[in-house]
Amino acid sequence: MLKYDFYARYRKMGRAKYISHLDMVRVFNRVFRRGRIPVSYSEGFNPHPKISFALPLSVFYESECEIMLFSVTEDLSADELLNRFAPVMPEGLEIIEVKAGKPDVKHLSYCLYDVYCNLPSSDELAAFLALSSMVVPKKTKSGIKDADIRCDIADIKLEDGCMSMLLSAGSNANLKPDVVIKAMNKYINGYFSGDCEYLRKSIYTNDMVEI
Amino acid sequence: MLNIDNILKNVQKPSAYTGGELNSIVKNPDEVKIRYGFCFPDTYEVGMSHLGMKILYHVLNLRPDTWCERVFAPWIDMEEEMRKTSTPLFALESRESVRHFDFLGFTLQYEMSYTNILNMLDLAGVPLLSRDRGEGDPFVNAGGPCAYNPEPLAEVCDFFTMGEGEEVINELMDAYIEWKQEGGKRIDYLKKIAKIEGIYVPSLYDVEYNSDNTVKSFKPNCPEAKEKITKRIIKNLDTVTFPDKFIVPYTNIVHDRISIEVFRGCIRGCRFCQAGMIYRPVREKSYKTLTEDAIKLINSTGYEELSLCSLSTSDYTEFPLLATELLKVTEKEKIGLSLPSLRVDNFSLDLMEKVQKVRKTGLTFAPEAGTQRMRDVINKNVTEEDLLRSARLAFKGGWTTIKLYFMIGLPYETDEDILGIADLAHKVVEAYYEVSPNKKRPPSVNIGVSSFVPKPFTPFEWAGQNTREELRRKQQLLKNAITNRHVKYSYHESDVSVLEGIFARGDRRLNRVLIEANALGCKFDSWNETFSMEKWNQAFINAGVDPSFYVRERTYDDIFPWDFVDIGVTKEFLKKENEKAKDASTTPNCREKCSGCGANKLCEGGKCSVKI
C-alpha cells in the first residue's frame, strides 16, 4: 500500500484542554473519517489508524504547537489535507498547518511554556534560578519520587502577566512547568503561585530549532 | 456560564462535565422561549449511551423556540466538589444552573436510578416534591419504560409521559407556549396537558387504600383528568424523524458508537419480559431508511463502530438485505458492525465471520431457564436441541467462549429447574469436545444468573418475588451443582433485585421511602461502590413502610397502582398468559399466529403491522 507521510500542527485551546492524551487518538480517528482523509491503517487483527504525537500534552494544558504525525494512502497535497481537516475539527482543536514529510522529533529537546499565575518578583526569580539544586516530588514511570529538577530548567523569564519557562522535553529528560511551580512554592520564601494556567508555546531541537 | 475550571482539576473525568463536544447544540438563550433540561439520572458515560436521549434531543432542538440541553448525575467526586463550592447542577451546553429552566425531563430506564433523580433535584436547588414547587420553578417530568408504573415517583414528578416521547413532546411544548401567552398559573398548565393523550398528572388523582394497604380506589379529582391514560406510539417508524447527527463524546462512554433503531416491539412474548409487552406492537423501519440513517451518521460523527438496536435483531424481516447493505458501507469505511441479540444459525455465523474477521470473541445465548418445562413456563420458545445446535455450529466455526444467561426465582420454579442450569452448561461443554476442531484449547462456558424481578404489564405481574434468603439458597444450590471446571458462574446481588422489585410494583407510599433514602445519602444504587442496603433498610423504617408488602403474590382481585395506564396489551391477555404459564403451555410468536394481545388498537385503523 502506498504511504505518504505528513504532519499537522494544531492548537488545543479552551475546553479541549480537558481531553486526555489517550482520548486524542480516538478524536483524530473520527476526524479522519469525517474529513474523508485516507489515513494509513496498521496491519493485523485489529487495524487502527497509525498516528503519533510529537510530545504528549497533559490534561489541563493548552497548546499552540501540538504535532500529530500520520500518513495517507493517496497522493494528496498538504493544502488539500488542510482543507479537509478544517471543517471537521471539534471545538478547541484547530489545525494550523499541514506539512509533507516527518518533523525532526528525534532531536526534540526543549519546550517553551507560558504559565499564568501569581508572579514572583524579578529578584525572587533570580535567587530561585541561582539555586544549584531543587528537589521536589515528580511523577516518573515507577511512581512519584523526589527528583532534582534544576538541570532541566533552561531558562525562566518574567513576561507581561505570565512566566515564560524553557524546560527539557522529550524522552531523555522531561520537565513540566507544574513541577517547576511546586519548586518555586517550596524554595521562594513567602511566595505562593495560586491557581495556574499552562500554555505550551513551542518545541525545539537540541540546536534550538523550532519543530 | 458557571466557572468550573478549578473544580474540574480535582475530578477523575473532567471531559464528562465540560460540554462542547462535536454536534452538541448551542442556541442563544434570548432567542428561545423554552429551556429544556433532558436529565439522565446516571453518569455521563451511561447516559450518553442512551438512544432515546439522542432522539428527544434532536426532536426538541428542531424547534427554533426550544433549547434542549443535557444534564447528568455528577459522579461522587464531582458532586463533592460541587457541594464544596456551592456549584449548582448545570446543563452541559450552556453550563448554566438548571434551577430556572422551564422543564426538567428525566428518563426512567431502571428503578435503581430513582434516588439519583432526588439527588439531582437537590443539587439543582429545585424542591424535591411537586407540591412544594411554585410559579417559576421548572416542571419536573419523566418518561421511559419505568414510567408505566409512575406511582413511586408520583409526588416527585409534576407529570409523566406514557409511551414514545417523540410522538407527544411537541404537543407539550406547544401547550407550554400557549399557556405562557395566556399568563396562567402552574396548575393551569398541568390541567391543560392532562387533556393530552398519554399525559399523567398525578396530583389530579386521589388514591384510597384498604386497611391492608392494597389500593381501594384510584380516581381523578378534576374534570380535566382522564380515567385511563393510553400510551402514545409512533405509528409509522419508517417516516418519523431520526437524528442525522449524534454528539461525539471525548471520553470513553459505555456504548461509544452509532446505533440505528431497526424496529420497536417484539414478536416473542416471553412472559417475564416487560419490554416485550410495553413496546408492542412491532413496527419496523425499512432497510433503505436504515442504510440512509447509517450513512448520514457515519459522515457526521466519524464513529468507528455501528450497532443495530432492537429487542431481537434476527426477527427483523429484512435482516439479510440490511446486513448486506450495511456491510458494503462498513467495509469501505473501515467500521466495525456489531449485531447484538442475534439468534445463532448458519446465516448469522457466516455474517459474524464477515463482520468480525479474525477476532472471535464470545457468543452470547439467553436460554433464561435450565429445563424445558421452565422455558415453556416463561414462553421462551427455545429448546435444548436449538441451543446445542447453535453451540455446535459456533464451536465448529472456531469459537471457544460462550456466555449463557439465566434467571432464577421465576414463578412456578422448582429446585429441579435450578439444577437444570448446571446440567445445560455441562452439555454445552460436552458439545465442545464433540465438535471443536481444536480440542487442545479448553472451552470457556460462562453462565450469568440474574434474579427474576416481577414487572408491571407482564403475565407475571401477579407473581410473588423470592425473598433474598430464598434467592441466596438457590444461588448456592446452583454453585454446588456446577462440577465442570470449564464452567464459570456469576450471579447478581440479591439485595438489589429485591429492591428493584419493590419499586417496580410499588405505590405512592414509596415516595416517602425515596425521600428518606435521599436524606440518608442513597445514590447510584446500581453501582456496587455506592449501594448500601443498610441505608435502605433504615429508609423503610424511617418512612414507616414495610418492604415485604411489595414482594407479595397478588390476586386477580387486586387493584394495581398502575391499572389506570393502558399500554394496548390488555389485562385479560396477561391473565390468560399467566394461566398458561401455570400449565407450562406456550404461546406462538406474533408472526406464527395472532394471540389477540390488544396492542393492535394503537395502530392506524386498529390493524396490527405484524404480517403473519
Q: Which descriptors would you attach to this protein?
A:
heterodimer, A: 211 residues, alpha+beta, Alpha-Beta Plaits, 2 domains, eight-stranded mixed sheet, two-stranded antiparallel sheet, 4 helices, 10 strands, elongated, B: 612 residues, alpha/beta, Rossmann fold, Transcription Regulator spoIIAA, six-stranded mixed sheet, four-stranded parallel sheet
State mean pLDDT of chain A (0 to 100 scale). Answer: 94
Fraction of residues in H or I helices of chain B: 25-40%
Main pleated-sheet profile of chain B: 6 strands, mixed
N- to C-terminal distance of chain A: 29 Å
Mean pLDDT across residues of chain B:
94
Total helical segments of chain A:
4
CATH fold label of the largest domain in chain A: Alpha-Beta Plaits
The main sheet of chain A comes to:
8 strands, mixed
CATH evolutionary superfamily of the domain at 5-210 in chain B: Cobalamin-binding domain
CATH superfamily of the largest domain in chain A: Pseudouridine synthase I, catalytic domain, N-terminal subdomain
Q: What is the CATH architecture descriptor of the domain at 5-210 in chain B?
A: 3-Layer(aba) Sandwich
**Count of individual beta strands of chain B:** 19
Q: What is the alpha-carbon Rg of chain B in Å?
A: 24 Å
Model regions low in confidence, pLDDT < 50 over at least 5 residues of chain B = none
List low-confidence stretches of chain A.
Answer: none
Query: CATH class of the largest domain in chain A, please?
Result: Alpha Beta
Helical run tally of chain B: 19
